[in-house]
Write a structure and sequence with these properties.
The structure is a homodimer of 284-residue chains.
Chain A: H1 3-14, E1 18-22, H2 39-50, E2 56-59, H3 61-65, H4 68-84, E3 88-95, H5 99-110, E4 119-122, H6 128-135, E5 143-149, H7 156-159, E6 162-163, E7 166-167, H8 168-180, E8 190-196, H9 201-210, E9 214-218, H10 228-231, E10 242-246, H11 248-251, H12 262-283
Parallel strand pairs in A: 1-2, 1-10, 2-3, 3-4, 4-5, 5-8, 8-9, 9-10
Antiparallel strand pairs in A: 6-7
């Protein structure tokens, strides 16, 4: 089954376009693990608590790699739980390398091993041959989200550079649309999607023009400052084609609320996000 | 001690600019592990066999991630061996993400944990704020190699796009040079380096103009088709500033040679590469 069809089916079943970003921060300036939690226990409790309101989890590899071998074991454990809960899994890995290396990354994140997910995020800087090894697994029901326009403050530094075909990110968008047009599901959307940061709504509108048949994964909702309306700006006329990620605003929803326990606070935040996004989707 | 000074010191001590790329392919079209070897044993024997001829190892994360938790444990084991052998370690991770996530990647690959190395490769597509969390660890003796111009067939697709400041990759090179100028070692080279593929010698010459004080890591020697002369094109007038990686041509040197055992064949290939690069460095 095409990955886009899998997403749409899940979306209908759960009446949700919410993805839980599993980005367990360590400490320092970012909120860290609550006292008494191991990395794996914290993430698993959060995933389980939010499962009814979300369609997918998007673990961010960095936070597991930062914990070494134990972190990677936790990552594998979280994926096992997500599969049991029938949630889609998106490895937020942002990988991309020369062909044989990208093929190994594709095996890692779209294969049957410990770290195998339903979809993976990829970085386009090396060009198509860094992406094609991932694309070769799409016929097995796998999905790809290529970074096109990111949500960070300096995303414009290179992505907005003017080229004869428009800003760099628009060139990337056109190429992703081209590759994706060979992998349309029955829903009319492609299994090759794009990451478009929600902090730039004008880019979201332009992205939809350039990517009319691509799933768009929108990060930046919540802690990164984008509103629900910003987040669904890239939706198609029928409200489809966009899935929205929140990480810190769900995982750390318990903070500052005396007496609230982390999983219950996360579940409430995920459900509130689901409802809010559905309201703005319906009227947009 | 500044990472560039560490590299130069090692280079003088060993009279070598060779890096061993530890890219243990799995199977399929690429050469895989020899019969009877585990991933960790194969890599460790190769590193130990080549240690006299090389200054650093550059493990490619993809090939370890593709093996799941056990692969990551092997990666950690190889790093421990390399440290014992007093080799520099460069995590070929090509990471890059929004700030807090890049900070976690920096902790993973430049920190004290299981996967901590001396340097890491980073991807510039997200702009400076994806690179700065890595840069913050440079004062601790750590190094960074940013992808600037890669060696794969479609590297030109985005990297060569024309902008008002020249091709995209030249804009990236200028930015990396700018960031790097704050981190010069006593040798006059910066701890912030660049990856410039050796399969495009004309780019190597231009890269040196744009990156006059940056270490350049050159992949593509050997199996990817670049000659020794191509590989040192980006060297400075005194022959410094370039370190050259080979992976498959060393790891799989035993192939097609009846009776040769893998570590001995690798040691011979690494030593031959060291001598060849020194010869062309001397005359270039």
């Amino acid at each position: 089954m095409n990955f886009a069809d899998r997403v749409l089916e899940m979306q209908r079943k759960k009446d949700s376009i919410v993805i839980l970003g599993v980005d367990p921060h360590l400490d320092g300036k970012e909120p860290g693990l609550p006292t008494g939690y191991t990395l794996e226990r914290f993430c698993c409790e959060m995933v389980e608590a939010c499962a009814a309101s979300i369609i997918a989890i998007k673990p961010q590899l960095a936070f597991f790699e930062a914990r070494g071998v134990e972190g990677m074991r936790a990552f594998a454990g979280i994926l096992r739980l997500a599969r049991k809960l029938e949630l889609l899994t998106i490895a937020d890995a942002k990988r991309g390398d020369i062909g044989p290396t990208s093929a190994a990354y594709a095996t890692a994140f779209l294969g049957d091993g410990d770290f195998g997910c339903d979809a993976v995020t990829v970085n386009p800087y090396l060009g198509s041959d860094a992406i094609m090894p991932f694309v070769r697994l799409v016929p097995q029901g796998k999905g790809i989200f290529a970074l096109v326009k990111t949500s960070n403050p300096s995303s414009g530094e290179f992505q907005d550079l003017a080229t004869p075909q428009g800003p760099l990110w628009e060139c990337v968008a056109r190429r992703i649309h081209g590759i994706g047009s060979d992998f349309l599901g029955e829903c009319g959307l492609s299994a090759i999607g794009a990451v478009i940061g929600a902090t730039y709504p004008e880019h979201a509108r332009r992205a939809r023009e350039l990517l009319p048949s691509n799933l768009i994964l929108v990060p930046g909702y919540g802690a990164q400052g984008a509103s629900a309306i910003d987040a669904v700006t890239a939706a198609r006329g029928d409200g489809s084609g966009v899935i929205v990620n929140a990480s810190r605003s769900i995982l750390y929803a318990y903070r500052g609320k005396a007496g609230s326990n982390p999983p219950a606070a996360a579940a409430a935040a995920a459900e509130a996000m689901r409802i809010e996004l559905n309201q703005v989707r319906a009227v947009s």
